[in-house]
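Example for tutorial group B:
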């Protein structure tokens, strides 16, 4: 059940919004385990170090069947004549985290760190939907350990967004999970769609039940996500079969694993086996070989994207990597090719890791004949000039009307996460643009059945379906329309934040830099890009056509209800005369304000007490009003 949610993400978001509004009206109803706490609170200044209840050690590895047999033999010898069983689990490729519960409520989440102490990431962990904030029926205090991962789809989406924003891509889902959990701003974690899989249950730093298998089942009953791919294996043969099964099955999981973990099931036997200085003697990580292969780089082709960026793509001699035939790999940009020291004709090592398209990890040997790659000076599609701006990794075609850009723009506009128009994919878009039927995304809305049916591989039924999809897309909410415009640096999340802050496309199009930057996560670079977009008469004409076609240009903004501090962010620093830090925060929140942890230009007031330090200084630098406790009480109407 946990792996197949009953409602969609969008429905979930809508319900959380509704709850947020309710809690705004009735603050007494809010609680730390409310789903609204998952949206991410205020950014913090650093992480607090926390000591683990028991060290978080790593596991010994078995790299082949021989090493697995050695492990099993040692276990058998140490346990004497007794029978034993293993629990086989997948070894998820993420980062481990310990989560503490008190009185049924999640109170603390800590990263592994150096194994002895880790970082307190509670606020961020609260945003992970598969991690229960409240648990019924457990002991008064317990701890759950498990792995934080980023599913492949979320990873691909995140990298696509980073591409659109001109940011560096994450190399693999593990790095992006770590990067997403260890950020100071929990709302960033909230946007990243992390998952938590539980694999250990501890009470007072020790396993609480008699067997590991029971622990996993108990965790599942309590609402934790426990991997269904688990098995109780009686003996080495069954364990080997489990390992083999998931070696073949790993492609279909939707997240990355790097092996299987085998744990002796009985906790008393685990105690008997004990630990070495580094790892338990009762468990082993069987590592799958990395999904790599060697092949020859036959050519490098340059593709032109939606923003005009030229992307070199490796054409490879086809090779099978863990069951999938690979003939292309992404090379991202010129610098990446330089860093790899890559030339056409070389033998390269490629690796699959969460991405749709694998990547070249290194040059294995130079080809007898090598041809160095050079970024073309002319766009390979339209023949116009190519420039590489200072400080940018990408070279771009300068022609805004380049057909390659138009095709990519239309394809992106119609794609699943954007306007979601069924049937309008690469093949159709190429035909529509090549035949001059579509010269801008607005032309989609004027298409007729008579224009579509003569196209290759198009029947009456599919034409009808496409036209219906186009029709439906007129109802898509403003954030999608805004994302679909393809404004540089405005991806899905920024579009959502802009729509929520300003409520209409006209308000966004008419706003100056300072106003635009009132939206969360919008800085100078983004605001300038938005302004440049709407100052361009061509873009304005497009927007007017889309308005005439009836697309959604307004967005209902869910406002936090009432209160004298509504819409304001107040930061407390230093020691106040009578209120504790928590009381001051509660006072701010009860008055409808947001209690911030760090001072930025979006802060409305800083409440300074005795021994206020860097935050006070920052407020003074930024010219943010500094007030005392008495003034805060007055403002809050207390
Ligand atoms: S058990 C003492 N189970 O692998 C037992 N670990 O190399 C501690 N991991 O740090 C870990 N999936 O981050 C366990 N099903 C699983 C796991 C798992 C992934 C990671 C974990 C740990 C590392 C050990």
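The residue assignment follows.
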């Amino acid at each position: 059940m946990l792996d197949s949610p009953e409602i969609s993400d969008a429905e979930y978001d809508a319900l959380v919004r509704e709850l947020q509004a309710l809690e705004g009206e009735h603050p007494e109803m809010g609680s730390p385990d409310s789903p609204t706490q998952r949206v991410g609170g205020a950014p913090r200044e650093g992480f607090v170090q926390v000591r683990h209840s028991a060290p978080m050690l790593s596991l010994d590895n078995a790299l082949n069947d021989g090493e697995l047999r050695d492990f099993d033999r040692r276990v058998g010898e140490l346990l004497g004549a007794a029978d034993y069983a293993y629990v086989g689990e997948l070894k998820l490729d993420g980062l481990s985290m310990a989560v503490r519960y008190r009185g049924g409520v999640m109170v603390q989440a800590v990263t592994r760190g150096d194994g002895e102490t880790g970082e307190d990431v509670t606020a961020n962990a609260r945003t992970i939907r598969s991690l229960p904030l409240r648990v019924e029926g457990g002991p008064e205090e317990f701890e759950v350990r498990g792995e934080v991962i980023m599913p492949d789809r979320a990873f691909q989406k995140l990298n696509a967004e980073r591409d659109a924003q001109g940011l560096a891509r994450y190399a693999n889902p593990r790095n992006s999970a770590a990067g997403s959990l260890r950020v100071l701003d929990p709302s960033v974690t909230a946007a990243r769609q992390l998952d938590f899989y539980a694999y250990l249950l501890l009470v007072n730093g020790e396993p609480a039940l008699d067997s590991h298998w029971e622990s996993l089942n108990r965790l599942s009953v309590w609402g934790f996500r426990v991997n269904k791919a688990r098995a109780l294996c009686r003996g080495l043969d069954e364990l080997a079969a489990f390992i083999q099964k998931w070696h073949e099955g790993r492609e279909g999981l939707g997240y990355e694993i790097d092996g299987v973990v085998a744990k002796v099931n009985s906790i008393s036997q685990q105690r008997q086996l004990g630990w070495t200085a580094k790892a338990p003697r009762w468990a082993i990580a069987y590592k799958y070989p990395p999904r790599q292969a060697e092949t020859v780089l036959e050519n490098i082709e340059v593709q032109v994207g939606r923003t005009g960026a030229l992307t070199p793509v490796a054409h490879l001699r086809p090779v099978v990597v863990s069951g999938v035939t690979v003939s292309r790999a992404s090379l991202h940009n010129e610098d990446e090719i330089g860093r790899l020291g890559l030339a056409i004709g070389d033998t390269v090592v490629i690796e699959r890791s969460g991405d749709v398209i694998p990547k070249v990890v290194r040059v294995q040997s130079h080809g007898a004949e090598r041809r160095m790659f050079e970024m073309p000076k002319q766009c390979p599609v339209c023949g116009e000039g190519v420039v590489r701006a200072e400080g940018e990794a990408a070279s771009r075609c300068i022609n805004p009307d380049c057909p390659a850009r138009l095709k990519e723009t239309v394809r992106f506009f119609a794609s699943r996460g954007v306007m979601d128009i069924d049937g309008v994919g690469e093949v159709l878009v190429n035909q529509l643009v090549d035949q001059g039927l579509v010269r801008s995304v607005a032309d989609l809305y004027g298409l007729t059945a008579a224009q579509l049916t003569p196209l290759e591989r198009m029947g009456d039924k599919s034409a009808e379906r496409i036209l219906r999809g186009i029709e439906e897309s007129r109802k898509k909410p403003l954030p999608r329309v805004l994302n679909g415009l393809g404004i540089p640096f405005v991806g899905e999340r920024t579009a959502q934040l802009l729509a929520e802050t300003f409520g209409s496309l006209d308000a966004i199009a008419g706003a100056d830099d300072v106003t635009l930057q009132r939206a969360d996560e919008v800085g100078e670079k983004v605001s300038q890009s938005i302004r440049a977009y709407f100052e361009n008469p061509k873009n304005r004409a497009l927007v007017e056509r889309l308005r005439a076609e009836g697309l959604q240009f307004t967005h209902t903004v869910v406002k936090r209800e009432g209160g004298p501090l509504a819409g304001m962010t107040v930061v407390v620093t230093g020691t106040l005369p009578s209120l504790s830090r928590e009381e001051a925060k509660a006072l701010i929140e009860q008055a409808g304000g947001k209690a911030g942890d760090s001072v930025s230009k979006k802060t409305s007031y800083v409440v300074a007490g005795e021994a206020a330090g860097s935050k006070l200084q920052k407020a003074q630098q930024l010219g943010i009003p500094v007030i005392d406790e008495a003034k805060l009480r007055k403002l809050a109407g207390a």
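The radius of gyration is 28 Å. Compare this with the pattern of hydrophobic and polar residues in the output above.
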